[in-house]
Amino acid sequence: MSNTRDLVSKIMAPVTSDLLDHTTDDHGTWCEVVGRSMEVMSHLSGAQGETGAKLRHEISSCTEAIRTLSRILGCNKCKEEMRQRAIWILTRLYTDTIGISGSFEYSCCGEDFVRMLVNIFTQDNEYSSSIRGYAGEALSNICFLGGISDATLIIQTSGDVINSLTQVLLHEENETCRQASAEILECLCTHYTKDDEYLHKLKKAILKVIGKILCCGDGTHNGEDIESQCDGTQENNEPNKDAQGFQVETLSTMSSNLLSSLLCLCGTVYNTSSVIDLRPQLDASSFLNNLRDMVVKRSGPTVENLSVCKAAGNMVISMLKYYSGGFFKEDNFGSLIEVLSSASKKMLDLDYSMVCSSASSSETGSKLGRRTLLSLVREAKELHAMAPSTSLSG
């Protein structure tokens, strides 16, 4: 198909010519034709191998088509299905021609598109939760596949992006949006290392989130005292409006997808140099018991459970590498590693098949990780065995 003369141009013609009537609410009689054209474009932009790269290059080269897709994305009159397809096509083109290769040759599908996604995702009063969820997933993929340039672009978008992402994660009802927010924050925490005001805001926001997650069930901490370690402020008696109405779920009641993203975020924080000492705020026994119960509950051989257990295993490894002292000689910690070991045996066949499929470089396989849960457990056991036996108080 990619070698058929002018075929792609003909397929894109309704989009390239912008046949939508922007003076009517339904965009006129050609709206369905444009939608069908976009449907084929979405299939072409997702093609694999050399053929897929050639097709995406041809689509990206068509400035008029890219502009129409961007216009559809920002149009409240367009059907959500069309706007979702616009996000999918533009994201695939961005990660293929800009986010991965680092080339900004096709500026129509570049920085402005990423900024548009950020604005859609963080403005809950202007866009539906469905569209915001799609935008959030797209940003998550861009962050995951990209690097520091994409992280810088997102974090420096106009407005307080970090605070908006935090609010989505802590207060949003739509779970897709919350999961995407956790994944975006994790990537920003990994890639953005410049010592400036943005990093300070990121660190402060991350610690607020981590405090609420790690201290859930502990009535003495709600994340604000952890956050105050960043800026030297002390907790006062005035109620915090950010905490009002917030009811953190227990680890055992969170959905698998959200829980996996949150645990990955926690593990990443322990791996970064910007993290501060959380031990004074962490009720180790309570948290480790909650995490252990969660693993026991999710030890059945499903892809979702495997993702959660791998995230928990990575978090355990990160904590062991970061900390020293007898904190990790607690019986509860050893028990957590043992239930992870038991889960790894139940999921062994599924795990091996997922690791093999991840070799195809699919985004799903990559996010699950290319290490088996069994290998994560083995490393955790080795690190735990080497941990000093002295207690924190000693």
Automatic annotation (TrEMBL):
Q: Which Gene3D superfamilies match?
A: Leucine-rich Repeat Variant
The family database entries (SUPFAM superfamilies) matched by this protein are listed as: ARM repeat
Superkingdom: Eukaryota
Protein name in the entry: Uncharacterized protein
Organism field: Triticum urartu (Red wild einkorn)
